[in-house]
Amino acid sequence: MGTKVFLRVLVIFPVCMGLFFFLPAGSFRFWEAWVYSVVLLIPMITTLTYLVKNDPALLERRMRLKEKEKKQKIIVRLARLPFLIGFFIPAFDYRYDWSHVSIPVVVVANIIVFLGYLMVFLVFRENTYTSRIVEVEKDQQVITTGPYSIVRHPMYTGMILMFLATPLALGSWWALIAFIFWPIVLIFRIFNEEAVLHKDLRGYTEYCQKVHYRLIPYIW
Fold first, then answer.
1. DSSP, residue by residue, the chain
2. 36 is in which domain, residue-wise?
3. Would you say residue 215 lies in a domain?
């Protein structure tokens, strides 16, 4: 499993870089794409190495793509188009010089992307049941430690940080329009996910009474 995942990443990642960044940009000089790709690839390889060694069961869960919940299937379909558009826009922005993002802003945005990925890694380390799809497994337990003691969905918090910072990390203000849909999509996903967890995961209702915030402490 581990070897196959590594090979998949090593093949798919550069292909995606070409299709999303350099082909539509019409140039390999799209330096923001190179920096962003490195910022993603380093924690990605680190996380995969950790999971292969310490939690292969979680790695297998992350390979599941087919949602079981009907509402989640709809949400995934709705999220797909703005996600794809959001990654294409920066390349065309670079090619046609639509907007200008200063180097300091690009650097800060990449730092936020990295911190968002770090938060996702902390979630993986804390919760072996972090499946890619919404499901409750047999004997699954409520996790209340680490980032789960602060918010109920810390992985989504990390993802929102990553995706909202991504357009600026890639040097495009216009791409924010597409990526702004992601928090909205995740909010709908959370509502449905929590309904499933309240129904099927023992102790989750009590956990929600202790940890009140879903994504952002003292806000929501």
1. -HHHHHHHHHHHHHHHIIIIIIHHHT-TT-HHHHHHHHHHHHHHHHHHHHHHHH-HHHHHHHT-----SHHHHHHHHHHHHHHHHHHHHHHHHHHHT-----HHHHHHHHHHHHHHHHHHHHHHHH-TT--SS----TT-----SGGGGT-S-HHHHHHHHHHHHHHHHTT-STTHHHHTHHHHHHHHHHHHHHHHHHHHSTTHHHHHHH---SSSTTT-
2. 2-210
3. no
- Which residue type, as a one-letter code, is found at position 112? I
pLDDT at 184 over 80: yes
- Domains in the chain, number: 1
Q: How far apart are CA 118 and CA 155, in angstroms?
A: 10
pLDDT in tens, 21-60: 999 999 999 999 999 999 998 898 899 889 888 988 888 8
Q: What is the mean pLDDT of the chain?
A: 89
- 84 and 175 Cβ atoms separated by less than 8 Å: no
For residues 179 and 84, what is the distance between their CA atoms, to the nearest angstrom? 10
Could you report the per-residue pLDDT of 78-96, keeping only the tens digit for each?
A: 788 888 888 899 999 999 9
* CATH number for the domain that contains residue 130: 1.20.120.1630
Residue written as token pair 């910022």: 39
